[in-house]
Input
Amino acid sequence: MFETVEIGQHMSKAEFESVRPQLQVALLAAQRSLRDSQVPVIIIISGVEGAGKGHVVSRLHEWLDVRNLETVTFWDESDEERERPRYWRFWRTLPARGTIGMLFGSWYTKPIIDRVNRDISSSEFDRELHRIAEFERLLSNDGALIIKLWFHIAKEVQQERLKEDKKKRPGGTSSYLKMFAKLYDRFRTVSERAIRLTDQGESPWHIIEATDDRYRDITTGITVLNAMQEKLDALRAPTPPSEGTAIETTYPGEPDPLTVLDRVDLTQKLEDTEYRKELERAQNRVFRAGWNMRNARRNCVLVFEGWDAAGKGGAIRRVTQALDARLYRTIPIAAPTDEERAHHYLWRFWRHIPRAGRMTLYDRSWYGRVLVERVENFARLDEWQRAYKEINDFEEQLTEHGIVLLKFWLHIDQAEQERRFRERETIAYKQHKITADDWRNRSRWRDYEIAVNEMVARTSTNFAPWTLVPANDKKFARVKILTTVADALEQALD
Amino acid sequence: MFETVEIGQHMSKAEFESVRPQLQVALLAAQRSLRDSQVPVIIIISGVEGAGKGHVVSRLHEWLDVRNLETVTFWDESDEERERPRYWRFWRTLPARGTIGMLFGSWYTKPIIDRVNRDISSSEFDRELHRIAEFERLLSNDGALIIKLWFHIAKEVQQERLKEDKKKRPGGTSSYLKMFAKLYDRFRTVSERAIRLTDQGESPWHIIEATDDRYRDITTGITVLNAMQEKLDALRAPTPPSEGTAIETTYPGEPDPLTVLDRVDLTQKLEDTEYRKELERAQNRVFRAGWNMRNARRNCVLVFEGWDAAGKGGAIRRVTQALDARLYRTIPIAAPTDEERAHHYLWRFWRHIPRAGRMTLYDRSWYGRVLVERVENFARLDEWQRAYKEINDFEEQLTEHGIVLLKFWLHIDQAEQERRFRERETIAYKQHKITADDWRNRSRWRDYEIAVNEMVARTSTNFAPWTLVPANDKKFARVKILTTVADALEQALD
Output
């Protein structure tokens, strides 16, 4: 595919100067409109070594309004990045809505280099490319404009440029440059495959001949401009009917179908003496497992979901009591900050993924998307429906990295909830835990039940199954959770 | 000082239960009021090993509303932290306004441990304590409530507890515990000094006897509650007149005094041929210096300030053109996000301090505090006046860490500014750079001049002097900046 851009395009200075001013005006106008429309723009700068990618970055800085533009480079990983799933470093630098993120190096870099060096097999490579395609689809579904630019030069041109570059640059890196020259053909084959497998409607590739600087820069400008204008046109077009249709869960006249929650045995309980014994035993196991996790540099994520008043807070504290305070963080999920709102909904959870040897406990989580946001219509139908897959992909990345991931649904019945609400109203130090919203949510019990059922069905994967915890008896629930945590950690660290 | 809390205080279960409910109600109410008042609360949990600090953290989680509370632990440094000035890790985790940050381990930990191990001299130790006091004063001036808790147990109690703890905890860390037991006396002496030198009005220490769990927890709760209520009382009291008085810079009837800007020779210029030659020479030097910086793992911060239309953007691009795009980040300073607004004004700049081997270019900077915020009354008199010291302390930390820090003021005169404004209005692709605000700011030229003069006078330190750049001729300014950067990097890397 690269042959098509090895035709020696070039542009005179006069031609360049005749196009540049109006191109810049148009780019600025498009950038402003995209900012006003709160579209996050991702420009990926990639291609052959020696194609002048740095110059392109510099040129776009000149042409665009830099107050609204951030350039991110992915080079050496820090240990904070290495100790987390690979996409953490990309998530942490994604541009906010209304801004442009120029990515110099990207999610493509490592898979391509690894494949060129034969560090990964061709099927592992394809798998990475598939992950990239999914990731870009997720961003694009969230409203992002992704402009992928690949700068190409022929082999002879590269050889010459690298020689030139080596002369100017101080020692230490010439081997890196040599490698590129030597591996040109292999790099070309691998890149072609990468481009082909990720060239999708949501995020097409643009291959630009980079032999002549002026031609390269003007073509880049025009390509970026066209992509921006296309996006703006699409925004102006009448919204197509929301994708996907609601899954029918009940039928008029029929009795409510059983859900997975109905099979939870809520009569299970622990007596006081037994509870104290079991709690201490389980906490001691978690205490030891926590230190072993630390020493083995493994990380762990616990997710707590459940009905209002199901006892999430108390259960979380029984876990953290058993852990050295330096080993864990509890993240209560409340209203998002505006930086969080300006990103994909998973961004705020990626933020808190623990480093090696640490644990994060999420008090409510990304499942809000398919629970409260679904039931209360905070998310559109297509948004919460595709969230199942997005969440599964996310959790797969966590577990692939070796994170021990456990998800708890604390289940109580309506009668027990009412009893606890009343108790909260009468006990002074519990009153902050009960609001009118809680009573209102109760009236939508059945809707939530359907949502929970579907959530458990669709996101109980073999790598991250749900644990449904009977929680009518708090003592039983706490011990159940502690032993589940201990079991999982002991097994993972064995 | 610790003798006073070695008196064996303890509390029965009945006593505990009689106090706990109303204490919790009061704590929750105080927390809510502080949230409504947008006060950031910092609770520092420190003290002797074995005093049950982890249990205290857990207890406060139980008593407070966790949706509004984050616990941060400072333990192993990551390389991202090691490669930056030491306070970077504290800045990145400071609580936002209206939230509580519980710090388990803090800025006290390392100096104390280092001094116990004799890794630092007593004067270095005192210096660190002085820095801590300044840091806490800065936070407190910004409205933060700092509650510092020190948990103490006698030597015999510690020995017993550590033995107990060792039994439960899996291998690998017993040497750490032994160290604490062995070094108890030395730790005690060092801690006493730390507490004494940092026990100031803005952030007093509270020493709590931790021999009996119930006594420790209730005393903690009451101490936190009292501190919160005191803060709320202070907020309710009528505001005292703003501290400090404006520095008289002009006298009625007298001619405007000369400022440092008047001594800048604006006639300096470069002809085209000379410019092209000099530019290339300087960029080549910066190119090499950039790679040397990278190889030497040094970091570099460039600050660009100057009159509107002085040519900051163009000058910055001439620097970045000379650098590999992976080596630098440009941070344009626009309106803060709400996460930024919810912190001390320096927080958003700390965020972007580069890692080892990288450079950050700030397009406008923390100096906004003493320029636009001063002139436009966005900051109160006492706020911008104390900013000089805060900024000097900040920059001292950067340079002490080995960061090469350069600050440029691009100076033009009023006539040149007017010429450029007019040009911007007529050239289409420059129109986004000129707004009504720019014309308005122009009318306050003299106020800005006074502010710039004072800024240069007060923040030209020996570790971070200002470079005043004559910028009526853009070409001269660009070459001047590039050679200054090259000189500084070459000297630092020599």
